Hints:
The chain is 74% helix and 0% strand. It is mainly alpha-helical.
Amino acid sequence: MADVEMTDGDETLAPIKILIDELRNDDCQQRLKSVRRLMTISTALGPERTREELVPYLNEMAAEMEDEDEVLLAMAEELGNLIEHVGGKDHAHVLLVPLETLCAMEEALVRDKAVESLNKVAEVLPNAEESFVPLLRRLATGDYNSTRIAAAPLFSTVYKRVDSSKTEMRQMFSQLCKDDIPMVRKAACSALGGFAQVLQAAHLNAELIPLFAKLAHDDQDSVRIVAVDNCVTLGKILPSDKTQQLVFPVIRQLQQDKSWRVRYMVADHFCELCDTVPKEVVESEMTPALVKFLKDTEAEVRTAAAFKVTGFCSKISVELGLQHIMPCVRDLAVDSSQHVRAALASVIMGLAPVMGKNNTIEQLLPLFLSLLKDDHHEARLNIICKLDSVNRVIGVECLAQSLLPAIIELAEDKQWRVRLAIIEHIPLLASQMGVKFFEERLSKMCITWLADSVYTIREAATENLKKLTEVFGVEWAGVNVVPPVLDMCTHSNYLYRMTAVTSLAVLGEGLKGMLPAVLAAVKDPVPNCRFNACKAIQVLVPQLEPSVLDGTVRPALHALSSDDDPEVKFFAAKALNSCMQVAGAWHEEEEGVREEE
């Protein structure tokens, strides 16, 4: 067994010896920790000893510890980072041995990470023909399924770095595509797109396209699912006429697949597949296909298709969308699956710019209203989050007449996330509606949220008031926001008082008349209210006159310095420190004025 010995002159490497010893520790976590430090170990040992001692040692570890997946996963990752530590690209081939061992592991995560590291090594090898192709041959023709699975993703990296082995590599890849084991064929199908990108056009058309077509007709749906990705990749590589001739028939066949998983994958990649064919083909053939997906018997397929409605409608004419897609959209808005309705709600608002103002008002507004009142909170939430895209198309007046009543109703929704989404969109609605309209319909609601039972809503409501002040100005806030907030400062419920004081702190800059309420909160019987009052004072300090600061604020804070609650004392001390800093600034300013005089 290879071992890493420390010589007598290696006293300075004692910590490294401990790490090396821990590679054999019975405790898995200690071994994992040591493997994570392989770069440190190899740096201390130097390139020569790393190549001759450490790497063979790691190979034996990999062969003996087949059940330690976590350690092997870390090892597979770290080996890919040791290229410079073994002496650079001229010696990187020594890393192939332990990585080949790791490629034989049954655990997919270990195998995939080993393949990733092998690709890193392959990129820098000066002579891949001699050092890497034999490894690839052993993996691709090995008796174990795991090695053949690991071989597939390596072809695209190695092929472009060899000359005389290109024909053999294409033959090996062909054998993987025809393998008896479905998992091997799936791996080959997954790697086919990457391999296609490095092949010459003649070999691509003559050899790889037939393999792609065969895999797309595989009797295992797990293989056919992967073929969908290849349709997109090949569609980008091949000229338009070749795509229509060689790839589109496969797309058409996969659209009608008997397996819902394959149909789901096609629906999920639908817009990308549309990009591989001309617009006339999209309108003539892809439109009926999407309609079928939107009416599919499986809810998962309808959900995937619903996500693509807006993206697809932007690729076809408005008339075609109204004629074929909109009837399906109306059905999806009342679909039995809540996931389908939620998926539609996340994209339907984006149809407004595509369809135009008149069609939005006639065709889409009723659906928006239906989804705003949906039983499933996620559907309601998704509609609210995209309100601005509709507002830009139909205008604020139409939005107010049609959707605003439903929005106001959702302001009291039982799901707090829906209420939160409404709050987050209030500043945008306010800026678009104007002061007068906002005061009539939404102003009171913004104050009501400060008394919500959920802290997150109260916090968002406070921030909302600050944003509204930025939109409408300080004077507006002084008349419409500050008075009701000051009233809440004397509420019998301490949560309301605490929220009100926090709001005053957030609103603080530029607003007057808030100090008395904050100073009253300093004497509140509840500690949370007192330390929030200290926070508010800290915000207000820069706006206060020196006489007010010395006459009322400092005495109040000094009184809290001996408070029974530690948090109150802490924030009182912070507020006093702010007072001292402000006072110091005033003093420096006065001194400067005197000197000038």
